[in-house]
Amino acid sequence: DGEAAKAFATFKSESEADTKIKEELVATKEGEIADIEAELTALADETKEATESHRHALDELEKLHTMCVAGEETYEERVTKPQKEIEALKEAHDMLENWQS
After folding, report:
1. Which letter, b or e, does each residue of 63-100 get, where b requires 16 or more Cβ atoms within 10 Å of its Cβ?
2. Which DSSP category does 74 fall into?
3. Which of 2, 12, 61, 65 has fewest C-beta within 10 Å?
4. How far is it, in rounded angstroms, from Cα 23 to Cα 17?
5. Rounded to an integer, what distance in angstroms lies between the CA atom of residue 32 and that of residue 25?
6. Is the pLDDT score of 100 beyond 80?
């Protein structure tokens, strides 16, 4: 009878100690879960903001592309335009030089 009571007391104290450790672990894990959920919410908000910013940047890029690149002349067109202007100026110069001849 005495040994059974002693064994029960030992079992009871070990079980209580184990339960206390596990309850502390549960509290710690619940705290970690709350922290992770808060971080996840913050990251979701940041992702939403970044997506909006990216979409806005793409819209602006499209506007700039239309204004700056899409209507731009080719290299050949840019080269021939000044050459034509030079030829026209030479012709006008010749006309002015030779108008009294």
Report:
1. eeeeeeeeeeeeeeeeeeeeeeeeeeeeeeeeeeeeee
2. P
3. 2
4. 10
5. 10
6. no
Token couple for 15: 């079980």
Distance CA 15, CA 21 (A): 10
Q: Which residue has the tokens 């009571």?
A: 5
**What is the spatial distance between Cα 75 and Cα 77, in angstroms, rounded to a whole number?**
5
Q: Which position has the token pair 């894990």?
A: 29
- Residue whose structure tokens are 């009878």: 1
Residue 57 scores a pLDDT above 90? yes
* 58-77 residue pLDDT tens: 999 998 887 777 666 778 88
Query: What residue spans of 2-74 are helical by DSSP H?
Result: 2-64
C-alpha distances (whole Å) from 62 to each of 31, 50, 66 are 46, 18, 6
